[in-house]
Amino acid sequence: QVQLVESGGGLVQAGGSLRLSCVVSGRTFSSATMGWFRQAPGKEREFVSTITRSGGSTYYADSVKGRFTISRDNAKNTVYLQMNSLKPEDTAVYYCAARIDGLGLSMYSYQYSYWGQGTQVTVSS
Hints:
Order of helices and strands: EEEEEEEEEEE
Number of helices: 0
Strand content: over 45%
Number of strands: 11
Shape: globular
Distance between the termini: 40 Å
Largest sheet: 7 strands, mixed
């Protein structure tokens, strides 16, 4: 059984920073491509960022490029999302996801097999 647990969300003012963490249980973490997605009220879930198994390659949505940084620590079974220069439009529930099919970076939610429960990020103006 693979479980993902996010933490680090909260309320922050525009321009502030937060770091999200996602701890993955099970032995698949080091072989999994990881991703972050988000869903704002009344909107569809959207891609934020993804990172390969080794951490050597990353990819970002245009809306967060230059502000967010994804990283991982395979020894701790944890993936991170450092969010800087936050904007009110970043307000959403943020989800981490694991892709275990052995393939690389993906911005498509259907290619991820396991999901966390989400953590709320609220950015006030």
